[in-house]
Amino acid sequence: MTGSGTRPQAPGLLPPETTDDVRDRKAGVAVLPIGSFEQHGAFLPLVTDTVIACAIAREIAAAYAVHLLPPLTISCSHEHETWPGTVSISAATLHAVVRDIAESLRRSGIDVLILVNAHGGNYVLRNVVQESAATGTRMALFPGSADWDAARTGAGVQTSSQGDMHAGEVETSILLHAHPELVRPGYETSDFLADDRRHLLTLGMAAYTESGVIGRPSLATAEKGKEILAALVDSFAEYFSLLTLKEPR
């Protein structure tokens, strides 16, 4: 039973497939959502990036023959650790976990792994994909910056990609569409811009925002979130086609 003080949980983070579902689908491509567990201001949950990664991955799995994996929910959020609740692992640990997952998939006959990353601080994932060419697993990192740009344009997002850094228009829109029960009141009045963040990695987020927000969540709508996800599903087609070719280019 749910206590009266318990907030609702995000459904759909774990894929419901059985062993027979996976066997019947015969998917040669696995999709791994990667989020984070970090502050997202006062109106979005700590699990925001994981919810977004799962929303993207679920839409992909509905449109393409892929094996949807459960998410990695804690990653590299060190720049947010001034705020209580944020939990991080090292880049080396994230690298090792993704590599181990890829090796396990390969042993069961799946040799393509696409990382659906929703946290910008997971820089090491670029290196994981870069190094994968010599491992026997073909990998990609999705969405790329061009995919996000196309989705933002198609959805009519008004905040620039530079300005919309954290808990802003895009992230709030996706949650308003996919899981509105997780969005608390207050996003309508929480806009804060800090476009000059040249020392972010050295100083952390707290040097640039007191609230944890950098962006304009007041412009968020569920319709924008829906259109962003639809555009990302369309962009995924190029990745899927490239990685399922018999002979890589």
UniProtKB/TrEMBL annotation:
Residues 1-20 are annotated as: Disordered. It holds the Pfam family Creatininase. InterPro entries: Creatininase-like_sf, Creatininase/forma_Hydrolase. Its cofactor is Zn(2+). It comes from the Bacteria. Transmembrane segments: none annotated. Keywords: Hydrolase, Metal-binding, Zinc. The keyword Cytoplasm does not apply. Coiled coil: none annotated. Belongs to the creatininase superfamily. This is Creatininase family protein. It comes from Streptomyces milbemycinicus. The lineage of its organism: Bacteria, Bacillati, Actinomycetota, Actinomycetes, Kitasatosporales.
